[in-house]
UniProtKB/TrEMBL annotation:
Alphabetical UniProt keywords: Oxidoreductase
Oxidoreductase in keyword set: yes
Similarity comment: Belongs to the aldehyde dehydrogenase family.
GO MF terms held by the record: oxidoreductase activity, acting on the aldehyde or oxo group of donors, NAD or NADP as acceptor
Keyword Oxidoreductase (UniProt): yes
SUPFAM superfamilies xrefs: ALDH-like
Name of this chain's protein: Aldehyde dehydrogenase (NAD+)
Pfam families xref list: Aldedh
Alphabetical list of InterPro entries matching this protein: Ald_DH/histidinol_DH, Ald_DH_C, Ald_DH_CS_GLU, Ald_DH_N, Aldehyde_DH, Aldehyde_DH_dom
All residue ranges annotated as the Aldehyde dehydrogenase domain in the record: 47-481, 545-756
Active site: residue positions: 265
Length: 786
């Protein structure tokens, strides 16, 4: 009785530890160490490194450091298994994935406990969030395998996927990568993070038990060096990486020009915006789910709270009170809210960033944490927007809190980051919430909620948070190749243009010099030089010789034309119809221009006709290429919106001087992007003639900018430009490699191909693929009901 009174008196929970016996037994069975999982079996352990339980510091397993020979063996096994796997019917692959999902389900408790022991996350999270989402992901993608042939006609798997994942959601990140890859008919070589390799190895055992054909899934353990051996391996066709932005950048450079497909899911510094009319108690719980979930080691964690000034004091007080109730400690204890930090190295990193913040004048508010590899829940006030804690990804339970005055301020602060993974918006006013969601530059926005995930909705970032999506149709599509045609004769680099002073030209026999077209106006090239454009019978004109400065001006002009992306699709369509009509009215003149380059009469006529039709086609798509509403959780709508990428650089192929330009620029602007286009270097005059048509068609200044000159150096400037959001390059193989490598700076999306590979007059030059490439999907989660 006394005992009961005591409990009622202090209302504390008694200890409720999760039983870890099954995991301890499993680890004991593997005391000799783990090898790699290659070709359906485990290799002998070699070059072992220790894996520890971060909550206790004890060594729990020894795992092999993958060497080049291991990676070779895994890639070889994956390569051998892939054709047979891809040749199975979608239905047969689906049955394998269903079986795998069911087997994972049967081992759910074991996996949850193992994850918690390996990673340090609270058992409540691994049991209720990580593992159920893993299972959901396999089931969902089993479904994609079943219907793939109908849903993605003509698409084929990439082949062998090299996948490298982080330690924050070890098994969930594996599921996000492996499930779509296998569903699509690829085979996989995956490397888990060195701190947390155990659930991946357990899953390998489960895959074997579930009868997954050997070689389809291979797991090689090791550190970053092993990771680099996988991503750089010649036998890999697609690389998928989740981890830090720094490593994402290294991989981008490492594989530039290799022809490997790439998706990157990188860091974040996501805003969490609380408006004055928000339900403040709910918003405080949102912070708990956002930054104090998984010890804050979450790429999409809301790590910057922006709160309306009028409620900032009240919100801070509520947050502070809630923070004090959080229990940090033993991850296996069912009442623990915050578990262990994954590794002492990560703990040291969190501490040093917080100390840097303190030195910069930040006020640190903290809850409690035991000694060991734990860090207390923390919020930080008095942080300047440019300070360390407001800009660096801490990857710990540390959030900044900054007041704002107006919604515009909130958006400006929210977007004041190089990242763009996620955001959370709290307001009882749905108009305001969706307006803000639309204005935040990020791939996922949660309204009055935080950190919701579902296999049916795409997840992934804008800007330096990476590109590509995981989950949903977009995620599946990233594991499929929409076969790019092969060039019969690859595009070769044309001779460098010979600079001619612009002044000298009037006197020459050549009739006129085409200027550049920047911000809706003709512009003299900064260099003061032009170059002769060769025709069938000698030079047919002069084009401006653009340089870096011209590109910078063009990018600036494109940036200013912000109105285009927010116009209705209907308005954009009207402008593009008008453009098509105006080109149609001048068809003969354009045909003549193409003939002057040496095109035959009929080829020239066809190119102009198709160009006109293509403009109409993209005009028609401007208000039809829609997003989707996903079925995710109950009482939610998840709006998948196709948004423009922003400012795009487009380097056009040399052949098809008019049609090449139209085929690339039109889908981009139809979707609301602004463009800096580099037309055919050899025959730029068809594109420069077009600016007169653009001018008379009500295309706002700055939406299309044209810089003529030597294509590759200009493309390089575009690739390196931090204010360019995406680059399409259709030229030589060497140019494509350069463009991919040079784009690593701000991790802009690229689409680089041999300019001669496509027959631009056919369906290869037009279609939804171009629209998909010209947009990025933002998923907005909107809860409804109570
Ligand atoms: P990391 O990016 O170095 O590691 C992620 C994975 O990449 C691991 O499997 C690692 O072995 C592998 N890797 C490392 N170097 C590689 C290379 N050159 N080529 C191929 N694979 C390579 O992240 P790390 O060092 O564990 O954490 C450092 C910081 O990165 C964290 O504090 C956090 O800010 C951020 N991070 C972000 C994650 C996200 O999901 N956005 C996940 C993990 C870390």
């Amino acid at each position: 009785m006394n005992k009961i009174m005591e409990v009622l008196d202090n209302m504390e929970y008694g200890p409720a530890p999760e039983d870890s016996a099954i995991v301890r037994d499993w680890l004991a069975c593997h005391e000799a160490g783990f090898g790699h999982f290659i070709d359906g079996g485990f290799t002998k352990p070699s070059d072992p490194f220790e894996v520890t339980n971060p909550a206790t510091g004890k060594v729990i397993a020894r795992v092999s450091q993958g060497a080049a020979t291991d990676v070779d063996a895994a890639v070889k096994a994956a390569r051998a298994a892939q054709p047979k796997w891809a040749a199975l019917s979608g239905h047969d692959r689906a049955r394998h994935l269903y079986a795998l999902a069911r087997h994972i389900q049967q081992h759910a408790r074991f996996l949850a406990v193992l994850e918690t022991i390996d990673n340090g996350k609270p058992i409540r999270e691994s049991r209720d969030i990580d593992i159920p989402l893993v299972i959901r992901h396999f089931y969902h993608h089993a479904g994609w395998a079943e219907i793939m042939a109908d849903e993605f006609p003509g698409a084929t798997p990439h082949g062998v996927c090299g996948q490298v994942i982080p330690w924050n959601f070890p098994l969930l990140m594996l599921a996000w990568k492996v499930a779509p890859a296998l569903a699509a008919g690829n085979s996989v070589v995956l490397k888990p993070a060195e701190y947390t390799p155990l659930t991946a190895l357990a899953l390998a055992e489960i895959a074997r038990e579930a009868g997954l054909p050997k070689g389809v899934l291979n797991i090689v353990t090791g550190d970053g060096e092993t990771g680099a051996l996988i991503t750089g391996h010649d036998g890999i066709d697609k690389v998928a990486f989740t981890g830090s932005t720094e490593v994402g950048r290294l991989i981008r450079r490492q594989i530039a020009g290799s022809g490997k497909a790439l998706t990157l899911e990188l860091g974040g510094k996501s805003p969490f915006i609380v408006f004055a009319d928000a339900d403040l108690d709910a918003a405080v719980e949102g912070v708990v789910d956002s930054i104090w979930f998984n010890q804050g080691q979450v790429c999409c964690a809301g790590s910057r709270i922006l709160v309306a000034e009028s409620v900032a004091a009240r919100f801070t007080e509520l947050l502070s009170r809630r923070m004090e109730t959080l229990i940090t400690g033993d991850p296996l204890e069912k009442s623990t809210d915050i578990g262990a930090i994954v590794h002492p190295v990560q703990l040291a990193r969190i501490r040093s960033l917080v100390e840097r913040g303190r030195a910069e004048g930040a006020q640190i508010h903290q809850g409690s944490a035991p000694s060991g590899c734990f860090y207390p829940p923390t919020f930080v006030t008095e942080v300047e927007p440019a300070s360390t804690l407001a800009t660096e990804e801490v990857f710990g339970p540390v959030v900044t809190l900054t007041p704002f005055r107006t919604p515009e301020d909130a958006v400006a602060l929210a977007n004041n980051t190089r990242y763009g993974l996620a955001g959370s918006v709290w307001s009882e006013n749905i108009n305001l919430a969706i307006d803000i969601a639309a204005k935040i530059k990020a791939g996922v926005i949660w309204i009055n909620s935080a950190n919701l995930f579902d296999a049916g909705a795409g997840f992934g970032g804008y800007r330096e948070s990476g590109f590509g999506r995981e989950g949903g149709r977009e995620g599946m599509s990233a594991y499929l190749r929409h076969p790019a045609p092969r060039a019969k004769k690859p595009e070769t680099a044309p001779p460098a243009p010979v600079a001619t002073p612009v002044e000298g030209m009037a006197a020459s026999a050549i009739d006129r010099t085409a200027k550049l077209y920047i911000g809706g106006k003709q512009a003299r090239p900064d260099s003061g030089y032009s170059y002769a454009v060769a025709g069938a019978k000698g030079p047919v004109g002069l084009a401006g010789l653009g340089n870096r400065k011209d590109i910078r001006n063009a990018v600036e002009a494109a940036h200013k034309a912000t109105g285009w992306g927010v116009q209705t699709g209907h308005n954009r369509a009207q402008v593009l119809y008008y453009l098509a009509e105006n080109l149609s009215a001048r068809a003969e003149e354009f045909t003549g221009r193409l003939k002057s380059f040496g095109h035959s009469g009929s080829a020239a006529k066809t190119e102009v006709e198709i160009s006109i039709r293509r403009i109409f086609w993209y005009a028609a798509q401007a208000d039809k290429f829609d997003g989707a509403v996903h079925q995710t959780k109950s009482a939610h709508v998840t709006l998948a919106m196709n948004e423009p990428l922003g400012v795009m650089g487009i380097a056009c192929p040399n052949a098809y001087p008019l049609l090449g330009f139209v085929s690339l620029v039109l889908p981009a602007i139809a979707m609301g992007n602004r463009v800096v286009a580099l037309p055919s270097q050899t025959h730029p005059l068809a594109a420069t003639d077009l600016y007169q048509v653009i001018d008379t068609s009500d295309v706002p200044g700055g939406v299309v900018n044209i810089v003529t000159g030597e294509r590759d150096p200009l493309a390089k400037t575009l690739a390196e430009h931090d204010d360019v959001d995406a680059l399409w390059y259709f030229g030589t193989a060497a140019g494509a490699a350069m463009a991919e490598a040079a784009s690593a700076g701000n991790l802009k999306q690229t689409w680089c191909e041999d300019g001669a590979a496509r027959d631009w007059t056919t369906a290869q030059g037009q279609g939804r693929q171009f629209l998909t490439r010209a947009t990025q999907v933002k998923n907005i989660w909107v809860p409804h009901g109570e």
